[in-house]
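Protocol step 6 of 9: fold each sequence in the batch and record its structure tokens directly after the sequence line. For illustration, a two-sequence batch is reproduced in full.

Sequence one:
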Amino acid sequence: AVRLRLQPPPDPIQTAGVVWPDFAVVLLTEEGSVLASDNTTKLQVANVRAMGLLQGAESAVLVSAGVGTFSGFLATVAEEISFDIVDQAGVLPRLSNIQIQVFPAAAAHLVFLNEFQPQTTDAGVAQGAPIRLQLLDLFQNLMTESTAQIRLSVMEGPTTSLQLFWEQNLSESFVDFVDVTLNTAGHYRLIATLVAENLYSSPSQAFEVIPGVPSHVDFSLYPEPTQQVAQPWSPFAVEVRDIFNNRVDWDNSSNLTASLDDLTGTAVPFVGVSSRQAAAGLVEFTNLSTHTAGLLQLHVDTTSGAIRGTENVPISVLPGRAISVEIS
């Protein structure tokens, strides 16, 4: 009775996208010697058990001197493959359940998962859900064996945030970033890097970091430090800011009042409209003046006790031009 034997068998470990080394099937006699006189038997792969295509398995191999050589096999799906080898005539016993494990090729794609993209959030508040990425090879196989380090960084955003990054290691081809917190309000996109191979992802979807609740007010434009009695001051502006010093551009309701004190703490009146309502977190004061000369302290406060006012700003108000002389 003639039987089939792999000689040599295919390597049980293969890589996606890489052509397998040739392997041979020999026809053996009952005594175990090669049936060298056989040049007519045709062998073929049958009963392939795989999700993907096993390229090269569709062709029959004609035996030469009792040996059939299979070549050009290639698989692109990382999975376990099993198959049989039979003779086309169906006379010889088959070689059953030849098993091959195909592993992913080199890392090629680092991608954000759509349902785990970064979302709009408040300044200082972590993302509500993990930002998840996965690592794939050229054929979209998950890199399940990799524990490589992934760096998530700010690709687009306020200048003060462009050096921020977070690092985590892959597990089962995925990496979750759960502690991503940005303190500077603005428009952002993130990007991820496979650190060891300098492989970059495509940018994440755009998202916003919104200023938090008002915490304090501060000058964005200071008045000139020297003013003249009864003359309009140079304009000055104040912003409503959160604890991270972002202008609270959604604040259209805070009422801000500019005030003057002398060095004893006594209030000095302004001439002009010194109380205004914020618009997009900003108040501009114009056309203010005072009839009091001397070294004064300017400060701006709100009607809300939860919002801290500005620090005192020293202003030197010079006397006006003399218009009369008194003789005693």
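Sequence two, same batch, same settings:
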Amino acid sequence: ASEAPAASASAAAPSASEAPTGAIDVGVGTITPINKDTLAFFVQATETYSFSVAQAEGAQQAAKDLGVNLDVYWSGLDPALELSNYQQAISGGKYGGLVIQPVTTQLCQLIPVDAMKYQVLVEIIGTPVCVTGTETGDDMWAPGTTAYIDQQNMFPTIIEMMNSAKAVVGDGPKNVMMILGNEGHGNVVAFEEAWKSFSAENPDWTLVNKVYTDWTAPGAYTATQNALQADSNVDVILTSYVDITTGVVKAIADQKLTDKIMTFETSGGSEVSVDMINKGQLTGSMPQLAFDAGYRGVAIMVDSLNGIQPAKFNPSEKAAAIGLLTKDNVASFTPDH
């Protein structure tokens, strides 16, 4: 079972300072929450995605521990559904705060206006709402929001994964395939921008194919099968999420290429990731602590609802300290989902 972070809600934002009036500065003005004990958590995907389930469980545990009411909305990677739920939640008068992992960047324009109009705090988690793909630190924060909660899944972590993969693979030219989520998703944009930066420094790594998927194992399996059947001259595959990786390694095995292709993932570190590493199917995984992310997101929002100004950028220090998981260090790692 996953364990809640040991720190209190206030300690979750170490650079926070208490606002004298209880109002929170969101960059376009200040907000005094209408309700301090009820909030909503917007999960980007659905219950079929392993990370999303664990993230929601972490959020629910934080709400229980901190004595607040929490409703979970599942956005299903559907911009229209997310927008509909968002509009009802922010205008309905029930919630003092919304914690959102956004599907659509349309929220970038809506939140600064709506948050001030309805005096509801909005916190972004996991994917910047005003994304260009290269943001780091405070630049991940967006006007109109209280804070950005990092999940170790954007540009800095992706670059780290690529550099770590090169260290594991060794010198010499490599043909690379990337298997990603849906085109235009914030994480996918960051992955593409990270590759531009990495490949500029490592021109002997050649991108021979880039494949978009629906983030699921079956979808990734089919897409990878088709790509490898068309061209199996691949040395390294980079993936953007553990469920994608699950489909990828099955496709590699079915093509009898497990001993030839090294696979590395971001948004990993799950029990499934560990199992794939131990079986020799996955070479390296950058952990994304799902339960911890959901817990931190709610804990920091609860502080905000109680008048404590959060830091704009709230890193996943626990995940960042782990680095790339490989067969050499995975035995000492404990997944949180």
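Proceed to step 7 once all outputs are recorded. Observation for sequence two: The first helix runs from residue 50 to 66.
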